[in-house]
Amino acid sequence: MTESPAPMPGWHLTADVDDFLARAGDYLRAEPALHTVALSVTASLRERGPAVYGARGQLFGVLYGPDGRVSGTFLWTKPFRLSISPLDREQADALAVALHGRDVAGVFGVDAASAAFADAWQSRTGARVHRAVEQRLYRLGDLTPPHPAPEGRARVATEADRELLVRWRNAFAADAGTPGGASGSEEWADERISYGGVTLWETPDGVPASMAGVTREAAGAVRVAPVYTPMELRGRGYAGAVTAEVSRAARAAGASEVLLFTDLANRTSNGLYLRIGYRPVRDFAVHTFTAPENG
Question: For every residue of 78-98, which 3-state class applies, written as one string?
Answer without folding.
Answer: CCCCEEECCCCHHHHHHHHHH
